[in-house]
Design brief:
The complex is a heterodimer.
Chain A: H1 2-18, H2 22-33, H3 38-44, H4 54-90, H5 109-123, E1 127-128, E2 134-136, H6 137-140, E3 166-168, H7 174-183, E4 188-197, E5 209-219, H8 224-239, E6 245-252, E7 255-264, E8 281-290, H9 292-298, E9 306-313, H10 315-322, H11 335-338
Parallel strand pairs in A: 1-4
Antiparallel strand pairs in A: 2-3, 4-5, 5-9, 6-7, 7-8, 8-9
Helix pairs in contact in A: 1-4, 2-4, 7-9
Chain B: E1 2-4, H1 5-8, H2 18-27, E2 31-38, E3 52-62, E4 70-75, E5 82-86, E6 105-109, E7 114-116, E8 125-127, E9 131-133, E10 136-138, E11 141-142, H3 145-148, H4 170-174, E12 176-182, H5 193-205, E13 224-228, E14 234-237, E15 245-252, H6 261-269, H7 277-289, E16 294-297, H8 298-307, E17 314-319, E18 325-327, E19 333-335, E20 341-345, E21 348-352, E22 356-357, E23 370-376, H9 379-388, H10 394-399, H11 406-423, E24 426-429, E25 432-434, E26 443-446, H12 448-455, H13 461-470, E27 474-478, E28 481-485, H14 496-511, H15 532-546, E29 550-551, E30 557-558, H16 560-564, E31 591-592, H17 597-608, E32 613-621, E33 636-644, H18 661-674, E34 681-684, E35 690-700, E36 705-713, H19 715-720, E37 730-735, H20 736-741, E38 758-767, H21 772-783, E39 787-796, E40 805-814, H22 823-841, E41 844-845
Parallel strand pairs in B: 13-24, 14-17, 29-32
Antiparallel strand pairs in B: 1-12, 2-12, 3-4, 3-6, 4-5, 6-11, 7-8, 9-10, 15-23, 15-24, 15-25, 16-23, 17-20, 18-19, 20-21, 21-22, 26-28, 27-28, 30-31, 32-33, 33-37, 34-35, 35-36, 36-37, 38-40, 38-41, 39-40
Helix pairs in contact in B: 6-7, 7-11, 12-14, 21-22
The chains are: A alpha+beta, B alpha+beta.
The complex binds zinc ion.
The site of zinc ion has 8 residues of chain A, from loops.
Chain lengths: 341, 848
């Protein structure tokens, strides 16, 4: 029986050497070491031996079992490694094929630019204040220091409605008055984003509706130097810290002194190109110290309070930034334009 | 405003290079839009000093072989005169004359120079080459204005009236630099050469390097003679609020003719067509001083007076009576409104004050005696008149921005003297001047402390005074304040605190914005206030973008007819009133929208032509006029539109099926789940936009809060938007304000479950009419707290089921927070649910 055991050991080890894959290994394991495997079977037959031979047989049988188990484990590791290698070798894919498309939504470019502007002003302590699109003549003009037939009204081509004294707001400035009425006598720092309307022929360069962001700061200690500092710092955050700015004298009826802020042309770095009309500067926003009459209309005593206001477009800077040649694209709803953002 | 520098230099020295001057002006508020160079360095066509010269025409002879060509013998600075062949028609009158005693001159270009081709559209350069013209060699050329780049004029050659000797470089007499100014409405004072000269003087005379600059005003002396004007004309002003001043000057025995070449040239440079010496002088003085003038034929006024049995013409300035009429200089017959200011005589209107004269009394070739009007009018009336009659003239543009009545007499004197010297007239003694209420001079005050408060910097009182004086304010220091008397050409400076602000603006722009430092606000930060609706709106956009939708923004203008297209035939029309535009830019943009659906459907249908999968949304206001209120409500709407295949199909295949109602509902659920809105209901509804049976009313709070409608657009409606057949068009419009108001303020996070889930599936057979939502609700109610999830995973209709029945299969997940559920627990719960469904809605288990 001991010879049988030795023979079985030799055959099993040979059999194991011949095993080449996981399936054969499993078969070998079951037939050799399993519950009904030959090692178990021969061990059970120990009772057939004379009593004195039994310990020696038992000891040897254990050694064989341990040896075979160890050999099996070594083989199993090798077979797994082999199999993984085989899988890797045959599982190459063409990584250059396109991926499975995911539906990707996008924000309108105006929303994207508006958000960026609002975020920067938000960081600087200016909160969003919104007001209506259809306004009274009073809020759109009169309270902003433009009585009826005032020459300054020429600056805005206005859409009138069939309701007497009701217009589509030509700028977000009426919101300044609304905000002052809501907040006085507390100091104010707000920005007013929204759609504005101007009576203009629609062309590649001009639209009848456009987004504007207006800003207003009112307090007891706000100066033109603060206006310059605040707006330059905004320009630095929007266009990069190194951007140059300049302030040009302008006229708006609701601010005094008034200015326009230009930034160094972002396309030619100030050298002069077609977009900046060879000036090296791009007009970004209009601004100024709130006119004493406007402060008074808002409920603030201009002898005590000062403030500054500014207003900028959204679509025009986007056109410069992205090289958009036709402003009509914005409201076209055309995916061929919108999905580029 | 067009400013030729050669003209401007009559009044002020140009001490800076032109680009630098232009930049200073722009920074100070006089925006130089373009600098136009004619013939000089900087121009597209620079006139070579050796090749563009003045020529004197000595004789004009007929070309021997061509009727329409002449030979001009010219002296041009060379040792020998030259003979040129030309077809210039304006030389024909001189044929055969001896011109040696005359001063007939013209610009001449020598062979080899580049000029503009007179026969080509626009300005195209060509090089002048000598060639034979009908047998006669021609090397040089006498030029038209177009060939030199001065104007579009190409009728004949340009004739010069100049003392310059032949051979003088053309640059020296015709070279020009023109500033084109874009002036804001407050710069009324700069619509004249003198006005611009004042600004240039202040801007270039107060810089540290510059010496103070003064303005050279033209002389206002008039040599008068003959009988007093007051005997020949009377002037009455009905209301000095409408016309604060009216002056009348009589110039007798003028000779109507062309005005001198220099005056014509200047007028042409600023865009005014020369007519005759009298009219040209009125225009010239308007351009020079800013005061519009009008010249009447005095004898015609006299005739009119006599027809009304009056011996002396009596001018009356008055408000028009409604219905009164007259034919204006442009030949248009006009009827007046009560705000028009009329210049009348005893026979009726002779002009619209400050806007345009009448034809009947206008100056003509035979005019001998001229009555010159220099007056002042209320700017608001002028603006209304110019607008109503669509008469934007140079005069109305100036009066409409505001002119001080003091200017009237200056204009009258300057023009009268020019009419005397250039048209040979005699100025009648004494100008008739009706000026009932001369305004008091305006005094504005400012202190260094106010400047500091406003600008944030200290400017020395001495410097402030210097700046204001350079702008012709008269300054006095009283008690630490500067009292500045405003010069009368400045109508934009007020009194009180506004006057202070006005002065600070003047001081800062001349001081230079660039020199004001940039500081950080030291004022305390106001209380921070959140803007919830705005934040929620932005997050709504993010949720929809995350659901794969593209945002669009549409015109908020539409027409009632366009919006009616979203309603299926036969349905109730939208009779709510619109916010209607009184002056629409085009017929298709006449009102403000009631809905976002119309523009969204247009966009979806248009995009479907080139995109397989289209999913769009828009968030924005609609405009709903409300009874008894001036302004419309402006609620915020959310609109979603989808059409086309479900997935973009790649090489691995994909779901090419058309999107249906459930794709749309999935998007809306992603939104409402994203906002953690509970109890959103979808119930069948009939709606004129949507296909019957495929539309849902979306609501909250057990149906009490209406959010909107979602569904498949009615095929007849879809057809109107040119949707291709067979592609369902899906859309929803929701009341975003209502949705945002329902968003819960907060939520609590549930612990991660400790115990395993036990799953049970049930397939139920039910009547078709029972909505899945009801089934689900019963399951949830019955399952209690151990029912962690219910998922409908299969809907089946077909031959294995009786007609009118369908099968709904649900996956139920049971889980307890406190213990591991046994199979028995799960079975018990499932059976309880099934029994309830059997009892209440007649369900039966399909598997049995
Ligand atoms: Zn540039």
């Amino acid at each position: 029986m001991l010879e049988q055991l030795e023979k079985l050991r030799t055959e099993a080890l040979e059999g194991l050497r011949a095993v080449a894959d996981g399936a054969a290994l499993d078969t070998w394991q079951r037939s050799t070491l399993g519950r009904r495997g030959i090692v178990t079977l021969i061990t059970r037959r120990v009772g057939e031996l004379p009593k004195e031979s039994r310990p020696a047989f038992g000891k040897r049988a254990n050694q064989v079992k341990q040896e075979l188990t160890a050999a099996y484990e070594r083989k199993a590791t090798a077979v797994k490694a082999d199999e993984m290698e085989r899988q890797i070798a045959t599982g190459a894919i063409d990584v250059s094929q396109p991926g499975r498309p995911r539906p990707l939504g996008r924000l309108h470019p105006s929303t994207q630019v508006l958000r960026e502007i609002c975020r920067i002003w938000g960081d600087m302590g200016f909160q969003v204040y919104r007001s209506r699109d259809v306004e009274t003549d009073e809020y759109n003009f009169q309270l902003l220091n433009m009585p009826p037939h005032h020459p300054a009204r020429d600056m805005w081509d206005t859409f009138y409605t069939t309701q007497e004294g009701v217009v589509l707001r030509t700028h977000t400035s009426p919101g300044q008055i609304h905000a002052m009425h809501d907040y006085h006598p507390e100091p104010i720092r707000v920005i007013l984003p929204g759609m504005c309307y101007r009576y203009e022929q629609i062309s590649a360069r001009s639209e009848i509706q456009f987004n504007q962001v207006e800003g207003l700061a009112v307090g007891k200690n706000i100066t033109f130097a603060d206006l310059k500092g605040t707006l330059s710092s905004f320009a630095g955050r929007l266009f990069g810290a190194q951007i140059q700015t300049r302030f040009r004298c302008q006229h708006f009826p609701f601010t005094e002194p008034s200015a326009e802020m230009d930034v160094e042309c972002i396309l030619c770095s100030g050298r002069g190109c077609n977009v900046c009309k060879k000036t090296g500067w791009l007009e970004i926003l209009g601004c100024g110290m709130v006119h004493p009459a406007v402060l008074r209309h808002g409920g603030y005593d201009p002898a005590v309070y000062t403030g500054f206001a500014f207003g900028m477009g959204v679509e025009r800077p986007a056109m410069v930034k992205y090289g958009i040649k036709d402003i009509r694209y914005f409201w076209s709803g055309d995916l061929r334009f919108l999905e580029q953002f | 405003m067009i400013v030729p520098l050669s003209w401007l230099q009559d009044y002020v020295d140009i001490t800076l290079p032109v680009p630098e001057l232009a930049e200073r002006m722009t920074l100070a508020g006089l925006e130089v839009e373009t600098i136009q160079y004619i013939g000089v360095s900087g121009a597209d066509l620079v006139w070579d000093r050796d090749k563009f010269v003045v020529a004197r025409i000595l004789a004009v002879g007929q070309h021997p072989d061509a009727d329409r060509l002449v030979l001009a013998r010219v002296e041009y600075g060379a040792p020998e005169p030259a003979t040129l062949v030309t077809g210039a028609t304006n030389l024909f009158p001189y044929l055969g004359q001896d011109l040696s005693g005359q001063n007939l001159k013209s610009p001449m270009v020598l062979e080899g120079a580049a000029i503009y081709d007179g026969h080509k559209e626009g300005f195209v350069k060509t090089r002048l080459k000598g060639r034979k013209v009908r047998g006669i060699m021609n090397r040089h050329m006498l030029c038209s204005e177009k060939e030199l780049g001065i104007s579009q004029e190409h009728e004949g050659i340009m004739l010069l009236e100049t003392a310059a000797v032949p051979g003088t470089p053309l640059q020296d007499i015709l070279g020009e630099v023109i500033l084109h100014l874009d002036l804001t409405p407050n710069l009324a004072r700069c619509h004249s050469m003198i006005g611009v000269a004042r600004e240039v003087a202040a801007l270039t005379g107060t810089s540290p390097q510059g010496t103070p600059q003064t303005v050279r005003y033209p002389s206002l002396n008039v040599v008068m003679g003959g009988p007093p004007a007051a005997e020949a004309v009377r002037v009455e002003i009905e209301d000095s609020a409408l016309s604060p001043r009216f002056t009348a000057t009589l110039i007798r025995d003028v000779r109507i003719g062309l005005s001198p070449e220099w005056m014509q040239r200047r007028l042409k440079l600023v865009g005014v067509r020369p007519i005759n010496n009298i009219v040209d002088i009125t225009n010239y003085v308007m351009m020079e001083l800013g005061q519009p003038l009008h010249a009447f034929d005095y004898d015609l006024l006299l005739q009119r007076a006599r027809t009304t049995s009056v011996s002396v013409p009596t001018i009356k300035v008055r408000q028009a009576s409604i219905g009164e009429g007259m034919t204006t200089l442009d030949g248009t017959s006009r009827t007046f409104n009560e705000y028009d200011i009329l210049i009348t005589d005893t026979a009726g209107p002779v002009g619209i004050g400050g806007v345009m004269g009448g034809t009947e009394t206008e100056v003509h070739v035979g005019t001998r005696n001229v009555l010159l009007e220099a007056a002042n009018f209320n700017l608001i009336n002028i603006r209304r008149t110019a607008q109503a009659h669509k008469l934007p003239s140079e005069a109305s543009a100036r009066f409409g921005r505001g002119i001080h009545p003091a200017e009237a007499i200056r204009g009258a004197r300057r023009a009268a003297e020019l009419m005397r010297t250039l048209a040979g007239g005699t100025v009648g003694q004494g100008i008739v001047d009706n000026y009932p209420d001369p305004p008091e001079p305006v005094v504005a005050t400012v202190t260094p402390a106010q400047i500091k408060r406003w600008l944030g910097i200290h400017i020395d009182q001495k410097e402030v005074v210097a700046i204001l004086e350079a702008l012709q304010f008269q300054c006095q220091i009283k008690g630490g304040a500067i009292h500045a008397t405003v010069p009368d050409h400045r109508l934009d400076i007020s009194t009180g605190l506004t006057g202070t602000a006005d002065l600070i603006e003047e001081i800062s722009r001349i001081y230079g914005y660039g020199k004001i430092p940039e500081t950080e606000m030291s004022d305390p930060l106001p209380p921070l206030r959140a803007n919830r609706p705005q934040e929620q709106e932005e997050r709504t956009r993010d949720l929809l973008v995350a659901a794969g939708l593209q945002e669009i923004i549409s015109y908020r203008f539409t027409t009632p007819e366009a919006e009616a297209r979203i309603l299926s035939p036969g349905s109730q029309p939208d009779e709510r009133p619109y916010t209607t535009i009184a002056n629409p830019i085009s017929q298709d943009k006449s009102v403000m929208r009631h809905t976002l659906l119309e523009s969204l459907l247009v966009a979806v249908a248009a995009n479907v032509r080139h995109h397989g999968h289209v999913a769009l949304f828009e968030i924005g206001s609609v405009y709903l006029p409300a009874e008894g209120r001036r302004l419309p409500d402006e609620p915020t709407r959310l609109c979603v539109g989808m059409a086309g295949q479900r997935e973009t199909v790649g090489w691995m295949g994909g779901d090419e099926g058309s999107m249906d109602f459930y794709d749309l509902k999935g998007v809306l659920e992603a939104l409402t789940d994203g906002w953690r809105l509970e109890g959103v209901r979808y119930e069948p509804t009939t709606d004129p936009v949507f296909c019957p049976g495929r539309a849902a009313r979306v609501s909250l709070h057990n149906g009490r809060t209406h959010l909107g409608t979602a569904g498949q657009v009615h095929p007849l409606v879809a057809k109107r938007f040119d949707m291709p057949d067979g592609i369902p068009l899906l859309a929803a419009e929701l009341d975003l304000d209502a949705l945002m108001a329902a968003i819960p303020a907060g939520f609590e996070v549930q612990p991660i479950p400790q115990f395993p889930v036990v799953y049970r599936d049930v397939a139920l057979v039910l009547d078709e009419a029972i909505p899945a939502a009801d089934v689900q609700q019963l399951i949830v109610q019955t399952g209690g707290r151990w029912l962690a999830q219910v998922r409908l995973f299969d809907v089946y209709r077909g031959t294995q089921l009786p007609a009118g029945k369908r099968s709904l299969a649900y996956a139920l997940a049971f889980q307890s927070p406190d213990k591991t559920l046994t199979d028995r627990d799960a079975n018990k719960l499932r059976d309880k649910i099934v029994r309830r469904l059997e009892r209440e809605i007649g369900a039966r288990l399909r598997s049995q």
